[in-house]
Sequence to fold (398 residues):
Amino acid sequence: MRETVHQAGRATALLMKGAGLALVSYLYIALLLFTAVTTVLVVGAAVLPETVLLLRRMAGFKRREVGAWSGKPVPEAYVPLTGELSERVRAATRDPSTYQDLRWLFAHFGYGLILAYVSLIVWSVGVFVDGVWCGLLKRPAVVLPLLSRLADVDASWSTALLTPSPEARRSADLAERVEELTVTRAGAVAAHGAELRRIERDLHDGAQARLVALSMRVGLAKRAYDKDPDTARRLLDDAQNQAEEALAELRHVVRGIHPPILTDRGLVGAVRALAASSGLDVAVDADGVEGEDLPRAPAAVEAAAYFVIAEALTNAAKHSGSQRARVELIRTAGRLRIVVRDEGQGGAETPAAAPGGGMGGSGLLGMRRRVAALDGTMEVNSPVGGPTVIEVELPCAW
Fold:
């Protein structure tokens, strides 16, 4: 009897909450009519998105209650209401889930109250009948279990009305994709701007400064040539050294834009050269990525993969404390997968995830932006104590 009463209590709580929500929806309908009138008159257009958000909260509350009762979560698919007022109004009125929630609201206003009234009747009869039948005669309860069936009816009807339609799912997925691409584009623009500033800084502080010094030394050598040939010769030697250093600086800048080794040796050869010069004992596994009968990845994909591996190995050499690392290049259908692993101390995090700074810092953030610019994915698994594993997948039309 105790278990029967407990289950009946849970079912009644669901039905009473539904009745309360139905009464709230009565007030919401008045608000909806006010919003519709003011929106038609233009003066109340700003109220429409907030009204739709309130409707979503009410539907979300019902989804959580039904999910808690049935054990099966009820999904939702909404178009985000962001941007300028006109964009939010347009999204609210064009989202199929808005009209689906409205259908649920009007239907629930009816069946929510009816089921609540029926549950009160069942309680009034069940307490007497099952009190005697179950409490005194020790027979299974026959009336109070009907409350669970009423709750099941409420849950099934609400699930059917609140489950997003395929059109609503497509609209929500499209909106989410657009928002993701907007963030990705912003990150790509920021990364591009940072790259241009780095190139400008390298040219200004490096090659340009050396070329200015070279010009000054050549000028001094020309003046001293007739009067002091030894000094002129020494100045020309210095000028030659400056020219070689300026060329080295320019090569460094060019490598930062697009490493020539990628063009000459391909991604696998460039990664092997990078591993040899990293200062770590790096094992490279790239079987099946490139070959005489296999096409190369697009230049943008090769460049992104190269810079990601270079930054990962640089971070490992600086921060991990490990002497060994491993790089895997894996060719799959339509994608290039990159795995960089070191056996160091771990703790590598992006700045957003590391309040104290963490390891990796802006280097990992730059890697994420470069990968996101190509619509790729990047995961960093670096527990404290190690190991650190960076996995990157880049879309690639082989």
Observations:
- The chain has ten helices and seven strands.
- The CA atoms of residues 28 and 54 lie 9 Å apart.
